[in-house]
Amino acid sequence: MEDYFSTPINIERGAVRRALASLSESELANLIEVYLMRRALVKEYMTKLGAAFTDPSTIEKHKADLARLHGDARKVGASVVLVVFPILVSEEIMKTSETWYVTAMRRYFEETCRKGDYFLDVTPIARRLSDSERVVNFMDAHPSAELHRMVGEALGLILTNQQAARSI
């Protein structure tokens, strides 16, 4: 979806970040500068991502991209397991991304699924962990090793035991 942002994310430095950046020899200054930049970028990124997912023409482009990818998989006889991770930074942001992102992907799946396909919304699994447990760390919002393990177990059920998979 980032490819469809109407304008790039603004990474201009304010006065504080410019002053910190001038202290290039200081690891602490670099850490603070990166933290401040991340806070500013996350807010702008979420705004742009939310706008992209709520814009009908943008979501249609994204769905076309997914259809091409899934079409390639189906050409070789594969089923599609669509695993959808919400944005994991905090419960508040996870709820927001669930509203516009997870819902849009579930709708896409319902429109295109075939027998043998499976949709895995990671949101309920992620909610079993605290904000800090579900991400790598406060500077890296990617899923933690523990969340990956839990999702891997769920995928294992989906791929090997359809009856048990219904309980996910």
Protein architecture, described:
The chain has 168 residues and is mainly alpha-helical. It contains 8 helices and 4 strands, in the order αααβαβααββαα. The protein has helices at 15-22, 27-54, 56-75, 91-112, 123-126, 131-134, 145-160, 162-165; strands at residues 81-84, 118-121, 135-137, 140-143. The protein has a two-stranded parallel ribbon. Strands 3-4 form a two-stranded antiparallel sheet. α1 (15-22) packs across α2 (27-54). The longest helix is centred in the N-terminal third of the chain and has 28 residues, at 27-54. The model has no long low-confidence stretch (mean pLDDT 84).
SSE map:
Elements: H1 15-22, H2 27-54, H3 56-75, E1 81-84, H4 91-112, E2 118-121, H5 123-126, H6 131-134, E3 135-137, E4 140-143, H7 145-160, H8 162-165
Give a quick set of tags describing it.
single chain, mainly alpha, 168 residues, 8 helices, two-stranded parallel sheet
The ordered string of helix (H) and strand (E) elements is HHHEHEHHEEHH
Number of helices: 8
Name the beta content range: 5-15%
Shape, per Cα inertia axes: globular
Classify the helix fraction into a percent range. 55-70%
Look at the helices and sheets and give the structural class.
mainly alpha
Spans of at least 5 consecutive residues whose pLDDT stays below 50 are none
Summarize the model shown.
With 168 residues, the protein is mainly alpha-helical. The protein has eight helices and four strands, in the order αααβαβααββαα. The protein has helices at residues 15-22, 27-54, 56-75, 91-112, 123-126, 131-134, 145-160, 162-165, and strands at 81-84, 118-121, 135-137, 140-143.
